[in-house]
Amino acid sequence: MNFDHYPPELRVAREQGVLTATLDNPVELNAVNEAIDDALPQLFADADRDPETRVLVLTGAGKAFCAGGSLAMIQSGLDSLNGFMVGYKNGKRMLQSMLECDKPIIAKVNGDAIGLGATLALFADITVAAESARFCDPHVRVGLVAGDGGSIIWPANMGFAAAKYFLLTGEKVSAREAQAMGLIAKVTSSEQLDAEVDRIARNLASGAQQAIQFTKRVINIPLRRAFVEMADAGFALEAISSRHGDHREGCSAFLEKRKPTFE
Known about the structure:
Number of strands: 9
Strand order of the largest sheet: 1-2-3-4-6-9
Oligomer: single chain
Strand content: 5-15%
Structural class: alpha/beta
Distance between the termini: 52 Å
Helix content: 40-55%
Number of helices: 11
């Protein structure tokens, strides 16, 4: 399969069965803009269909993994419910395609994973982070419901008590803390991150493919069930909160670098 059709903000290369997709939007710390938002759902579907791909590695260029949604997409959601709904449809397709992709997905978290970036990293099958990375779902801090998958994957990985704390407060959690609480699988130094992910990817690529893929499918049964039960409700409640004045105030405060005053 040819992967040349992806936008420049999503660089894709394959070597020895390992497909590496790099978010490359450095101006916005690899935030998901419209081009990336359209391409990501197709990426996971293409990787699943590609006979030459055995493992998919998702990472970010530079110092960040992904800073969440781009400012343009956030503004689109403020100005029009239709803009929000486009993001909802793509977001649902993207996360569903990650769960349905039989090929193992590794998130190489080279830097902060925020909002949608954290959801992307945590929906991967194996999340390996540099010790300098942090994870955060700050929806509530801008007056939004954490409905784009965070409410599904955080409690699934770390349990309800810890997930409620971080989703209700929007606080950051360090890579080491995230590993200790079961949110992610592995942490390594920034210098060793590439080598460690390469080791895991090569190990998976040289393994028994049917056994690996079917094991992923079995493990994902409760996640797929939870996604079916919760995704539409989460996105719907997030859409409702996007119409509330608290969200507009949260966005204004973020752009103006001040503390928001919610209703």
